[in-house]
Write a structure and sequence with these properties.
The chain is α+β, with helices and mostly antiparallel strands and about 210 residues long. It has helices spanning about 10-20, 45-55, 70-75, 90, 110-115, 125-130, 180-185, and strands spanning about 1-5, 20-25, 55-65, 80-85, 95-100, 100-105, 135, 145-150, 155-160, 165-170, 195-200, 205-210. Strand 10, helix 7 (about 180-185) and strand 11 (about 195-200) form a beta-alpha-beta unit. The two termini are about 20 Å apart.
């Protein structure tokens, strides 16, 4: 199961209505080290080649966790938003989805291996390692990335359509208003989605879930 956090706003509701998610260019991310080129090309032409390759990629970020307090704080409007649960085995087993490698240091690669892995029409896992490395401080996100191709360099991202029926769960943040919960439930009426409230535990620092509706 993949999870994606949202604030409650026009864009997130549009994703639910149209059954799609947004993939951004890595240059739009909030972490300045994210997708940083860490291979010493020793040749400006090779540097330019990689940057052009990376500039035509869009990334959609998911998590393996739906109960992480920091994720709710950072990506779901301080727990006033929601999280969707996506059950799509074909996507999870595909080459376009990659888990993040968390590390204290930059990814290193043999230059020749790195260059020869650039084959047109192939999923370039060697080059994609740069797009899937983050500092270990981000490990709590338990992130998985969907990497997509953009048509041209001027695009800032693209919408990725979800297969019908793959959104199986919605989790409401512990500060989400009742009105906004009802709005989401109405949007997804008839789509066989299970709704859950997340509340604050009285026993420890955790989120407790219960069925909603």
């Amino acid at each position: 199961m993949l999870y994606k956090y949202f604030g409650f706003n026009e864009n997130s509701l549009s994703c639910l209505i149209n059954n799609e998610v947004w993939a951004s260019k890595p240059s739009e991310f909030n972490d300045p080290f994210d997708s940083l080129v860490t291979v010493d090309f020793k040749d400006d032409r090779l540097q330019d080649l990689f940057e052009k390759w990376a500039d035509k990629k869009a990334v959609c970020c998911f998590s393996r966790s739906y109960k992480n307090i920091l994720m709710w704080s950072h990506y779901a409007d301080c727990h006033k938003g929601f999280c969707i649960g996506i059950n799509w085995p074909d996507l999870e087993e595909s080459d376009v989805l990659s888990s993040i490698n968390y590390s204290e240091s930059f990814f290193e690669s043999d230059l020749e291996v790195f260059l020869h892995s650039n084959i047109d029409g192939k999923i370039n896992k060697q080059w994609e390692k740069i797009l899937t490395q983050k500092h270990i401080d981000w490990k709590y996100e338990d992130e998985v990335r969907l990497i997509l191709e953009l048509k041209d360099h001027g695009e800032k991202g693209k919408l990725f359509p979800l297969k019908d029926g793959v959104i199986e769960e919605i989790y409401f943040g512990c500060r989400m208003s009742s009105k906004n919960k009802v709005t989401i439930a109405r949007i997804l009426r008839g789509r066989n989605v299970k709704f859950h409230n997340l509340g604050k535990s009285v026993n420890d620092f955790s989120l407790q879930e219960e069925i909603w509706g």
